[in-house]
Design the sequence.
């Protein structure tokens, strides 16, 4: 069996890297750029930094779409595409968390293809050979969207979070842009990155290259995430987390994620809780579920998290050790249980059809039947 590892885009990494944005747009031969972002990124002064970089090189025009919100919908993509077409841009720059970067990716489809966006955002994702350059600048250390081919967009007409695969041109990872993140967002997004690496390593489409970056990402998250939560302006820790999230993105680009993200998507669509939070809540029991199927892979994750393993642990014990360690990290950053947010056990279990039908569940090494999904959701609720 052959296993594939892809690197969709070159990565420029380092403190202050956003200053090179204008130069890179010019190198691509583009004339007018559309910035795609949300309110928070603009208020943090990050769009101003991007504009400064573009102005410095001269000869480039700018347009703006600041209408992104969390869990962006296909209609948000359509609105952004309308701006792109009206402004006749030839470059898209997504600046922000996964929502802004994924919206930017999806908008790029509609610059050279007819709309609406929902024609491309499907339950079983397709690849669209997009032509317009897309530059992605993360302002969180979590999603890794800057180095993945996937854009995840909500389809309210189906109550689903569906996807499309596109080309990404360049990612610019500047840890300084994460310094203003509130602690809660730091925790949620960092745990999203952890879930990307852990699900990539344990999914059926694993490959040895992704394993390498995934394991390295988990080590960095274990060492630095809590520090970023406690001391938000620790630039060294922020720099390590930016790198970790980027590596976790590389880690899941080919293997994709699996049932943890199916659960997370179900929570997103029904509860509208943040994606990173949802992934975090789902992750411990996802690891416990897959440990008997892929114990040697869960052991890699356990060691990377810093658990002193003997190598003689029974698979189920291994799963519970890893789940406990993730829960310990979550508690240390005050991640709220679902019950404290007002959701009942019955409400959570009732989401099992959404978990089973999500295409991501098919990448799990354990077959996700109705009963398995119900049991997983119950354990997610009961154990945290
Ligand atoms: Fe995620």
Sequence:
């Amino acid at each position: 069996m052959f296993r594939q590892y892809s690197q969709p885009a070159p990565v420029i990494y380092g403190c202050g890297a956003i200053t090179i944005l204008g130069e890179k747009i010019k190198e691509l031969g583009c004339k007018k750029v559309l910035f795609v972002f949300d309110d928070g990124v603009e208020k943090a002064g990050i769009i101003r930094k991007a504009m400064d970089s573009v102005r410095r090189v001269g000869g480039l025009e700018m347009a703006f779409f600041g209408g992104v919100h969390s869990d962006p919908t296909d209609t948000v993509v359509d609105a952004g595409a309308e701006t792109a077409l009206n402004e006749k841009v030839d470059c898209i720059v997504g600046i922000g968390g996964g929502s802004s970067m994924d919206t930017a990716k999806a908008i790029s489809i509609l610059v050279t293809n007819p709309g609406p966006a929902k024609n491309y955002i499907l339950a079983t994702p397709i690849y669209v050979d997009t032509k317009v350059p897309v530059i992605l600048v993360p302002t969180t250390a979590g999603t890794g969207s800057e180095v993945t081919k996937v854009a995840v967009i909500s389809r309210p007409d189906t109550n689903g979070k569906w996807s499309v695969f596109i080309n990404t041109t360049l990612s610019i990872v500047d840890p300084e842009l994460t310094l203003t993140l509130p602690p809660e967002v730091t925790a949620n997004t960092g745990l999203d990155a952890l879930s990307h690496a852990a699900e990539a390593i344990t999914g059926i489409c694993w490959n040895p290259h992704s394993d390498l970056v995934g394991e390295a990402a988990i080590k960095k998250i274990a060492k630095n995430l809590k520090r970023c939560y406690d001391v938000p302006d620790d630039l060294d820790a922020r720099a390590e987390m930016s790198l970790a999230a980027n590596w976790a993105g590389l880690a899941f680009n080919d293997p994709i994620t699996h049932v943890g993200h199916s659960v997370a998507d179900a929570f997103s669509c029904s509860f509208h809780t943040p994606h990173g939070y949802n992934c975090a809540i789902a992750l411990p029991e996802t690891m416990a579920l897959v440990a008997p199927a892929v114990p040697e892979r869960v052991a890699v994750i356990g060691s990377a998290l810093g658990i002193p393993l003997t190598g003689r642990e029974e698979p189920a014990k291994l799963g519970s050790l890893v789940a406990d360690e993730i829960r310990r990290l979550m508690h240390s950053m005050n991640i709220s249980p679902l019950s404290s947010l007002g959701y009942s056990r019955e409400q959570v279990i009732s989401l099992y059809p959404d978990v089973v039908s999500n295409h991501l569940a098919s990448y799990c090494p354990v077959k996700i039947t109705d009963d398995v999904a119900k049991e997983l959701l119950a354990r997610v609720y009961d154990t945290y």
Remarks:
- The longest helix spans residues 208-230.
